[in-house]
Amino acid sequence: MYNKVNPSIIDELKQIAGSSHVFTEQGDLVDYSHDEYSLDDIAAFPEAAVKPSNTKQVSEIIRLCSRNQIPLTARGSGTGLCGACVPSFGGIVLTFENMHRILEIDTQNLTSTVEAGLMLRDFYPAIEEKGLFFPPHPGDESATIGGVIATNAGGARAVKYGVIRNFITGIEVVLPNGEIVHFGGKFVKNSTGYSLMHLMIGSEGTLGLVTGATIALMAPPKEIMTLVVPYNSLHDAIGTVPAIIENKILPMAVEFLDRETAMLSAEHLNKTWPCTQGKAHLMIIVDGSNEDEVMNLAETIGNVCMAHNALDVFAADTQTKQRDILDIRSSIYEAMRNYMLEILDITVPRSQIARFVEAVDQVAEENGMWLPTYGHAADGNVHTHLMRYRWLEGEWVETENWEEKYPIARKRLHELGKKYQGICSGEHGIGIVKKEYLKSFLEPSQIELMRGIKQTFDPGGILNPGKIFD
Question: Does 290 map to a domain?
Fold first, then answer.
C-alpha cells in the first residue's frame, strides 16, 4: 500500500528543509519512534525525520509524500500517552521542533497567534508578561500547541474553563494534498457552514497538519486559593463534589487523589504535600475578582467538605505553595512511569465517579495488582495506573505474574467504564493503544462516519495511518 523512502525522496526532503534538518540514521531516529506510552511494544522507527521551518515547507513535504504514497506522521514534543505520534507504517516523521514562534499577542482582541511547535512552558510566561491568562493546563508544559490541539487536551482546569477546543478560534492547516487552508480567525462567533476547525481539533493528525493557531486569552483571576482536604474515605471525598456544585460554586479545579500517591509524587519532586492525614484527598482551586470573594468561596467549600466527613481543610494562599501543590499533582505520572504499564483516562459522569473508583479498587484486589487511581473529580475524567510494580514501605516491588494480570485488568476497567456510562478517553486520545476499545464505546454508525471523514480528507491514507481506527 505504501512506498519506501528512497534516496531520491531524501534528496528532495533536503532541498525542501535543508540537509541539516533531515535525519535518516537509526541513532537519530530513536526519539521519533515512540511517545510517552510506558511500554515499548508499540514503538516503530520512521525511515526519515524532517524538521520544516515554515508552513510552505510543510506543504511541500506533504505534496512529496502524497505523490509518492509515503506515510507521514506529524509530531510535537512526543508527550502523548497512546502512541498517536508513533510512525506505525514507517515513512516520514514531520516534527514541528523548528516552528515554535509566537507570531502575535493581540491585546485588543485578546488572542495570540502561534506556530504549532511552541511549547506551553514558553507560551505561558509570554502571555503572562502581557497581563493575560490561558486557562488550560494539560499537565506537561513541554507539550506543544499543535500537540494539545491534535488531542483536544484537557487538564485540571477544564471543569470551569473548558478544554483546548474552547480556546482555539482559528487554525492554519495543511491538507493531505498540500493545500494550505485557514479555519476560523480572531472572531468569537462563527456560524458560517460546517465547523471544519473543530473537526480538526482532536483528530490526532489524521485529517491535516495544524501548523499554527489563534488562541483566545483572558484576563487573569485577581485572586486564587488552593485547598487540600483529607478524608478517610474516597467515597466521602468524591461525594463532596456534587454538594460543592449544588452550592452554585464552580471551582477552577477539583482533583481527587489518594494520600500515598500524593506523597510519592512529592518525594519524586523533593517537595512537600501539605497534608499527611486520611486516605483520600481533594485538591480544590478557587479563583475570584478579589480576596474577599475567594475567602468566602473557600469558607463555603470548607464547610461543605466538613459536612461530608472531611478531616480538615488546608489552605495554600501563596503562589509558591499553590504552585508546589499543582506541580505535585501534575507529576504523578512522572513519579510512576518507570514502574507502570499504562495510564488510562476513562471518563464517566461525575455522579458515577465514586462507584467507578470503588469498582476499580475491587479489580485491583481480585487481580492482586496496585491500581492507583486519581483524576478530575468535577468533570469525571479518571486516571488509573496499571502498575507493573507496587510501592511498599518505601521501595518498589514487582507484581507477581503481571504479564497475565495486565490484560485481564485492562479489559475489566474498560468494561466498567462502559457500565458506568463513560467513554474510553477524556483527554489523551485514541492513537494506537485504545483502538480496540473504540467500538465498545461508540455506535458502529459513528465509526463509519469517522471513516468517511478520513476518506474525504485523506483519500490516499498517508496522514498518520493506523491511528484511531484501522
Answer: yes
In the predicted model, is pLDDT for residue 189 greater than 80?
yes
In a domain, 2, yes or no: no
- Tally Cβ neighbours within 10 Å of residue 40: 8
Q: Which three cell numbers stand for residue 18?
A: 535543508
Query: What count of other Cβ atoms lies within 10 Å of the Cβ of residue 381?
Result: 27
Q: pLDDT band for position 133 (50/70/90)?
A: very high
* Inter-CA distances, 407 with 81, 328, 404, 412, Å: 17, 29, 7, 8
Chain centroid offset of residue 241 CA = 23
Q: How many domains does the chain have?
A: 4
- Tell me, yes or no, whether 437 lies in a domain: no
pLDDT the model gives residue 467: 97
Chain length of the chain: 470
Whether residue 194 sits in one domain with residue 111: yes
Determine how many CB atoms are found less than 10 A away from the CB of residue 141.
14
Amino acid at position 195, single letter? S
- Domain residues for the domain of 391 are 333-430
177: nearest Cα among 72, 30, 311: 72
Whether 308 maps to a domain, the answer reads yes
Q: Provide the pLDDT for residue 154.
A: 92
Per-residue model confidence as pLDDT tens digits over 258-295: 999 999 999 999 999 999 999 999 999 999 999 999 99
CB 201 within 8 A of CB 148: no
Reading phi first (left if > 0) and then psi (alpha if -120 to 50, else beta), residue 91 is in left
Rg for the chain (alpha carbons), in Å?
23
Report the distance separating Cα 359 and Cα 128, nearest Å: 42
Q: Which residues contact 406 (CB under 8 A, 6 or more apart)?
A: 341, 342, 369, 386, 388
